[in-house]
């Protein structure tokens, strides 16, 4: 353990020079027109993602030898023994559904606001989980998208949560107190607060393991993962393990195949086939909950300006994938600074996806959007566009921030916090707009 840690720090120093490591975990550290700091905090390295975006990710450079594996960024906290009793207010047990171009929550169709938190299932203090859901409930946020995966190639140190160990061709699901029991508490607390969860099963990126962690254990590559039998068997077993825990829970908004799946340079049939077969598999386990892909919305000819996100280079065809029967709604994300577009361009991106969803007769969820500064002035117009766009039935900003027992929740640069002016603008005011529009 110690030597691995030292090696990681060393390689980080070598890559970053002797400059003070500055960019936060998962923050931007490079890309066309990027002028900020290019060095990452200790334990992270700057990894190229596309021409417009490099990101600080865990560990040593992927081109270096394989001794380094995933470490976790979760703040390690002591296990709380005190359980707060959460609000006992009656919440509906109806499942989330769709009606035409709208989602239904508690059987009411409408437009819903929500957020993302990749970290909530990795917390070890139940009170912190309850705090987030009580603040969300009070604020009128209805949906939280969380990471339902946390894959490692070596077991992390005590106090660090992980969900699945992938090693030497074998997958071992961790159902212990530092494993899926942490996600159990998230679902339980969401249930008692009336919050609906989107739970995904794997990451395209290497944060919290991702496809790269499967590749380390099962071989192949990032792009062959989608058709690699051993990797897909492990992935499906994992899906089954998670779904079997919560298939009767009214707190599930949807099951999601992956966070931002891409197959760079692949024919669009690769992802199409994978989405089709995986969504059918999920419906065979649980036909009552909604299923979505979790993609960024790339590859679209509706209102396309031919820019990188509208193109098909990441192996996605939005219209074709949305047509799959077992996919209940479309997802799209928006990060102009990572994609080489302007912030204003984002409004057209929202409109074009709403139009594509309306064509398909299914709702769209504006599932992630973020900027690293001027949150209110840049993101509020996107929210207004989404709210008035037919075919878009909800939005989830990236990402939720709050003050936990350990201090502020992780800030990847895009975070804004409960109780701030930005929260007032993008949550309180937005929720009021949604209410007056309905
Ligand atoms: C995830 O996205 C990055 C950025 O495009 C890409 O380099 C990587 O290959 C992707 N992974 C997969 C499995 O497509
Ligand atoms: C995307 O899918 C749609 C619907 O199947 C199809 O009409 C279109 O030609 C596809 N575009 C590309 C570039 O594959
Ligand atoms: C990036 O920089 C180039 C050259 O300075 C400029 O023409 C272009 O508009 C910039 N792109 C963005 C998205 O700011």
Keywords:
CBD, 11 helices, eight-stranded parallel beta sheet, binds 2-acetamido-2-deoxy-beta-D-glucopyranose, disordered N terminus, alpha/beta, 21 strands
Q: Can you describe what's shown?
A:
- Mean pLDDT is 88; it is low at 1-21 and 61-90.
- This protein has two domains: 27-58, no CATH class; 97-437, Glycosidases (TIM Barrel).
- The strands form six sheets. Strands 14-13-12-8-7-17-16-15 form an eight-stranded parallel β-sheet.
- It has eleven helices and 21 strands.
- It is of the alpha/beta class and 438 residues long.
- The radius of gyration is 20 Å and the shape is globular.
- The protein binds 2-acetamido-2-deoxy-beta-D-glucopyranose (3 copies).
- Residues 33, 340, 342 line the site of one 2-acetamido-2-deoxy-beta-D-glucopyranose.
- Residues 49-50, 204-205, 211, 222-223, 225, 262-264 line the site of one 2-acetamido-2-deoxy-beta-D-glucopyranose.
Structural class determined from secondary elements? alpha/beta
Distance between the termini: 55 Å
Overall number of strands: 21
**Strand-residue proportion:** 15-25%
Largest sheet: 8 strands, parallel
**At the fourth CATH level, what is the homologous superfamily of the largest domain?**
Glycosidases
* Low-confidence sequence ranges: 1-21, 61-90
Trace the largest sheet across and list its strands: 14-13-12-8-7-17-16-15
Number of helices: 11
**CATH architecture label of the largest domain:** Alpha-Beta Barrel
Overall shape: it is globular
- What compounds sit in this structure? 2-acetamido-2-deoxy-beta-D-glucopyranose
Would you tell me the overall average pLDDT?
Answer: 88
Give the helix proportion (percent range): 25-40%
- Please tell me the total number of domains: 2
At the fold tier of CATH, the topology name of the largest domain is TIM Barrel
Radius of gyration: 20 Å
So what's the CATH class of the largest domain?
Alpha Beta
């Amino acid at each position: 353990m110690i030597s691995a840690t030292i090696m990681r720090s060393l390689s980080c120093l070598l890559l970053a020079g002797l400059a003070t490591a500055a960019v936060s975990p998962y923050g931007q550290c490079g890309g066309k027109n990027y002028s900020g700091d290019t060095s990452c905090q200790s334990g992270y390295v700057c990894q190229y993602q596309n021409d417009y975006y490099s990101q600080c990710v865990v560990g040593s450079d992927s081109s270096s030898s394989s001794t380094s594996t995933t470490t976790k960024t979760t703040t390690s906290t002591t296990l709380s023994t005190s359980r707060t009793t959460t609000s006992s207010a009656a919440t509906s047990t109806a499942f989330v559904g769709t009606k035409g171009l709208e989602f239904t929550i508690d059987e009411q169709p409408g437009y819903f606001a929500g957020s993302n938190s990749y970290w909530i299932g990795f917390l070890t203090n139940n009170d912190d989980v309850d705090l987030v859901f009580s603040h969300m409930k009070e604020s009128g946020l209805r949906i939280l998208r969380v990471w339902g995966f946390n894959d490692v190639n070596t077991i992390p140190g005590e106090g660090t949560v992980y969900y699945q160990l992938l090693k030497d061709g074998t997958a071992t699901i961790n159902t212990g107190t530092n494993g899926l029991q942490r996600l159990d508490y998230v679902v339980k607390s969401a249930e008692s607060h009336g919050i609906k969860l989107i739970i995904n099963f794997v990451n395209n990126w290497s944060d919290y393991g991702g496809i790269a962690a499967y590749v380390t254990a099962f071989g192949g590559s990032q792009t062959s993962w989608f058709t690699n039998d051993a990797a897909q068997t492990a992935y499906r077993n994992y899906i089954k393990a998670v779904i079997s825990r919560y298939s009767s829970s009214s707190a599930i908004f949807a099951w999601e195949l992956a966070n931002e799946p891409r197959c760079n340079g692949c024919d669009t049939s690769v992802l199409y086939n994978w989405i089709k077969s995986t969504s059918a598999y999920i419906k065979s386990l649980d036909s009552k909950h909604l299923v979505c892909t979790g993609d960024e919305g790339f590859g679209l000819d509706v209102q396309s300006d031919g820019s990188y996100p509208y193109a098909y280079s990441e192996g996605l065809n939005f219209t074709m994938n949305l047509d799959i029967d077992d996919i209940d709604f479309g997802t799209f994300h928006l990060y102009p600074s990572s994609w080489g577009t302007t912030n204003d361009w984002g409004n057209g991106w929202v409109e074009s996806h709403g139009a594509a969803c309306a064509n398909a007769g299914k709702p769209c969820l504006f599932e992630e959007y973020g900027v690293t500064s001027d949150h209110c002035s840049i993101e509020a117009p996107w929210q207004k566009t989404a709210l008035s766009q037919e075919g878009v039935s909800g939005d989830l900003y990236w990402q939720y921030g709050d003050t936990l027992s350990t201090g502020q929740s992780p800030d990847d640069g895009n975070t804004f916090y409960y109780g701030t002016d930005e929260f007032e603008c993008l949550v309180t005011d937005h929720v009021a707009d949604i209410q007056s529009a309905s």
